[in-house]
Amino acid sequence: MIALLMSLLRRHYFLTGIVFVIFFAHLFPHIGAKGGLLKPEITVKYVAVFIIFFNSGISIKTEDLTKAVLQIRIHLFIQCFTFIVFPCIMVVLVNMLSLSSFDGLLLQGLKVLGCMPPPVSSAVILTKAIGGNEPAAIFNSALGSFLIGNLVDVPVYNIATQLSLTVLFPLVLGQILRKHAKLWLDRKHIPFSCIGSCILLLIIYTTFCDTFSNANIGIDFISLMSVIFLIVIIQCILLFSIFMTITQVFKLFTPPDAVAVLFCCTHKSLTLGIPIVKILFSNHPGLSVISVPLLIYHPTQILLGGLLVPTIRGWLLFNQKYRTQLSKV
């Protein structure tokens, strides 16, 4: 019985890890919250993201990175969905909810949420954990941040500097190391996927530490539960709809490409989103409430994405095996 339990835990170590870190975050939120012992505003925002893209730089072939830049159809789909389709969906939803007693400030927050770009960390690391098109996820996450920086009155220099230090520099450094130490890396069989999964667990932990430590966010319990429920439903519908559209209905992309598209289209950046909200509503008395949908969306997307990793990875492996068998016939 114990052997069977240990076997199940090893097989589903990532899901077990998610449950553990959320439970630990609930017990000790002060450790991983901003200003806490782990200092996530430094260790996660800079160090962890640096490691993610350094890890990507070492493990991705240079020709794959070059090829990803030229995958115009993927870029157009992700950016059009992110900045046109997603905002339109939220506007329609908000107009419908405005007929009810739903909090008006939360409705404004939902509109703003719909316009946010994909994050530079979670979409990339989930794509990598599954085995999807990681270079495409990297390119579109960075591109989305630059586009929103130009569209909104946000300091573009600050965005460019942060992306250069946390994305471009470690990626290039990893590529240089890969070029000069490729044989050594191949002999060592470094578990890049496992490293990425561990970093994702750290991000989940610190995210939920922040969530559990924010006891008072300025709205009543009913409104809070309503917006949490609504955001979970929105994400589930979007994940299912996009996945079915691009893999079953139109079959627009290969399975690895579909994984990158799925997460880049449905994830939203908290790191860039909060400064944008503060700029747009700098003198607004309801700023904290307007920020709530984005603050809830962030941990929800990481949690749902993490839970989907084993299932989508299984789907991806099945499709790759099926295509291999067809090519042999």
Describe the protein:
It is built from 17 helices and no strands. It has helices at residues 2-11, 13-27, 29-32, 40-59, 62-69, 72-97, 104-114, 122-130, 134-151, 156-180, 182-188, 192-213, 221-249, 255-266, 270-280, 287-290, 292-328. Helix 4 (40-59) crosses helix 10 (156-180), helix 8 (122-130) packs antiparallel against helix 14 and helix 9 (134-151) packs parallel to helix 14. The longest helix has 37 residues, at 292-328. It is globular, with a radius of gyration of 20 Å. The protein starts with a helix and ends with a helix.
Q: How helical, in percent, are the residues?
A: over 70%
Task: Give the tally of β-strands.
Answer: 0
Number of helices: 17
Radius of gyration equals 20 Å
Distance between the termini: 43 Å
Descriptive labels:
329 residues; mainly alpha; 17 helices; 0% strand
What's this model, at a glance?
By secondary structure, this protein is mainly alpha-helical. It is built from 17 helices and no strands.
Secondary structure topology:
Elements: H1 2-11, H2 13-27, H3 29-32, H4 40-59, H5 62-69, H6 72-97, H7 104-114, H8 122-130, H9 134-151, H10 156-180, H11 182-188, H12 192-213, H13 221-249, H14 255-266, H15 270-280, H16 287-290, H17 292-328
Helix pairs in contact: 2-12, 4-10, 4-12, 6-7, 6-9, 6-14, 7-17, 8-9, 8-12, 8-14, 8-17, 9-10, 9-14, 12-17, 13-14, 13-17, 14-17
